[in-house]
Design brief:
The complex is a heterodimer of chains A (about 375) and B (about 140).
Chain A: H1 2-21, E1 26-27, E2 34-46, H2 55-58, E3 60-70, E4 75-90, E5 95-102, E6 105-107, E7 124-140, H3 141-144, E8 153-167, E9 175-189, E10 194-206, E11 212-213, E12 218-231, E13 238-239, H4 244-256, H5 260-270, E14 275-281, H6 294-306, E15 310-317, H7 325-345, E16 354-360, E17 374-381
Parallel strand pairs in A: 15-16
Antiparallel strand pairs in A: 1-13, 2-3, 2-12, 3-4, 4-7, 5-6, 5-11, 7-8, 8-9, 9-10, 10-12, 14-17, 15-17
Chain B: H1 2-20, E1 45-52, H2 55-58, E2 66-71, E3 74-78, E4 80-82, E5 85-92, E6 99-106, E7 111-120, E8 126-127, E9 134-135, E10 139-140
Parallel strand pairs in B: 1-8, 1-9
Antiparallel strand pairs in B: 1-5, 2-3, 2-6, 4-5, 6-7, 7-10
The chains are: A alpha+beta (about 375), B alpha+beta (about 140).
């Protein structure tokens, strides 16, 4: 029980940490970031006497369907329904809920015996049918730790509580119980819509969940499932605390920015030898610059003041290993627009001398992924 | 989609393997026997046995179960069940000292159990009492 509590505390601490690190309040509209999953696999039950079954006799099938939603890149919720069969084992000297002598006093007559094959030593397999419905909190470890190797893999931890229903089957009556569920899932992205995953999960249930009373505090299963996830089209996260002028600027820049190729062609025709003067950095999924970069702004301001014919072009970027290309384009545009606002409002630069555009993540100025969460200030002549 | 074409059949195979690998252990079953004492005028001696079944077998007692004592493959006594105890009057010759084998048939599971050479026949001998019955160490016949 202690380990159970510890696991819960650790997981929920991680949730709190993730929320604390995520300084930008996310607006995740109801329709965004939903997914459905289906899986199938094998499981074993760790109930009393089940260890007497041979490993292959303990294995039974498990099927699951789930639906969920990612609230932030790190944090999600899901509702999962799983079930089918458990293979347990019993001898003649157990106590069974179906043989209640009186309240909290049970007899050793298991009605299941009448419907299963008995071994010569009197033991028998208890074939159980169940359905376990649980609501889980999910944490994307790779997003939390900023590990996204080629944007293909992810590891997701989950914990939740649910309702386990032992279905009346072969003499057993139905039994209701609470389940506590934990899981670790490895996910591989096939394309924008489909992932495959492998999940290892366990459900902890009270001793009598299977109709047999043995005195243990809880019994649990261990399941390994392979599954497929389908992500609905609307995905991504956007901020809800964007100033209106930034929103308008973003809309304008997006409208004006057709694509990078066109921008490059225009540059070549109009400007000679532009050069990058400074870079302003950002944290992942944020569009407010990291504090302590005043020197970068002052360099831009000094250059503009010293060169009345100069203009600055702000190219916003986002790293390519997180987020979708569409989302990254919007994020990079916000970054450029935010830097533009700072130059105008805090340093008094005329708006006509500042160009801002989002490049997104299709082009990456730096080889180190996290350095590309940046706005590059390029100086040009009018 | 090429990956899917590879992964989905692999996934289906894994599921089939995991769910289909169980093979149940089988045990020999028997048809209902008809045991009755062999009549022999020379069997003037008797021995009394009061026995019970082990719990793992006794749990499944039902109508049709049979328990009998054998000497040299010849049925010498059939049990009568009274209040959960099996009383067997084993017949034999006065000077006979052969080993007695008990056989038990479980109608519920169609298993045959036996206790080979459990005790030696003894004229007027007693093998267990009502106050202290012998629990037969039965072994399933599986060959």
């Amino acid at each position: 029980m202690k380990s159970l509590l510890m696991a819960g505390v650790i997981l929920f601490s991680a949730v709190a940490l993730a929320s604390a690190q995520d300084n930008v309040k996310k607006e995740n509209t109801f329709l965004n970031n939903w997914y459905v999953e289906a899986g199938a696999g094998a499981q074993a039950l760790f109930s009393t006497d089940a260890t007497r079954l041979s490993p292959k006799d303990r294995i039974s099938s498990s099927f699951s369907v789930a639906g969920g939603k990612w609230i932030t890149p790190y944090l999600g919720f899901r509702l999962k329904v799983e079930g089918y069969a458990y293979r347990a084992y019993s001898e003649v000297d157990g106590l069974y809920l179906d043989d209640a002598v009186m309240f909290w006093v049970w007899g050793n007559n298991d009605p299941h015996r009448l419907n299963v094959r008995i071994m010569p030593d009197g033991s028998y397999n208890r074939n159980l049918r169940y359905i376990n419905t649980h609501a889980d909190v999910q944490l994307s470890l790779f997003n939390m730790l900023d590990l996204k190797p080629k944007e293909k893999w992810d590891v997701i931890m989950s914990a939740g509580i649910g309702y386990n229903r032992l279905i009346a089957f072969k003499g057993n009556s139905g039994v209701n119980s609470i389940s506590t569920n934990f899981g670790v899932m490895a996910k591989y992205r096939l394309n924008s819509y489909l992932d495959i995953n492998m999940e290892v999960g366990t459900a902890l249930m009270p001793d009598q969940f299977d109709g047999r009373v043995t005195g243990k505090m809880y019994e649990n299963n261990l399941a390994v499932t392979l599954g497929v996830s389908y992500k609905f089209k609307r995905r991504g996260y956007k901020s809800n605390n964007v100033p209106i002028e930034v929103v308008r600027e973003v809309e304008k820049v997006i409208r004006d920015t057709v694509n990078t190729v066109k921008r490059v062609v225009v540059e070549k025709k109009v400007f000679n030898e532009p050069f990058a003067l400074s870079t302003i950095s950002f944290r992942i999924n944020q569009y407010n610059p990291i504090l302590g970069q005043q020197i970068a702004f002052e360099n831009i301001v000094k250059y503009l003041n010293a060169n009345p014919n100069a203009v600055v072009r702000l190219d916003g970027y986002a790293d390519s290993e997180t987020g979708t290309p569409e989302y990254n384009l919007a994020l990079s545009t916000k970054r450029a627009a935010t830097v533009r606002s700072i130059l105008i409002n805090d340093y008094g630069i005329e708006s006509s001398r500042i160009q801002a555009q989002g490049i997104g993540s299709n082009s990456q100025p730096y080889s180190e992924n996290k350095f590309n969460r940046a706005v590059v200030a390029t100086m040009l002549e009018k | 989609m090429k990956k899917l074409r590879f992964i989905l059949p692999l996934f289906a195979l894994c599921v089939l393997f995991l769910t289909g690998c169980k093979k149940e252990e089988t045990f020999k079953t028997f048809t209902q026997p008809y045991w009755h004492e062999e009549f022999n005028a020379e069997y003037t001696a008797t021995m009394t046995a009061v026995v019970t079944l082990p719990q793992e077998i006794g749990t499944y007692v039902q109508e049709g179960d049979e328990l009998a004592a054998f000497i040299n493959g010849e049925c010498r006594g059939v049990a009568k069940n009274i209040d959960g105890l099996n009383y067997i009057m084993i017949k034999g010759m006065p000077d006979e000292n052969e080993m007695v084998t008990f056989k038990y048939y479980s109608a519920r599971n169609m298993y045959m159990y036996q206790c080979v050479n459990c005790t030696a026949f003894e004229n007027d001998g007693i093998y267990g009492t009502a106050d202290s019955p012998i629990v037969l160490p039965l072994v399933v016949i599986n060959e």
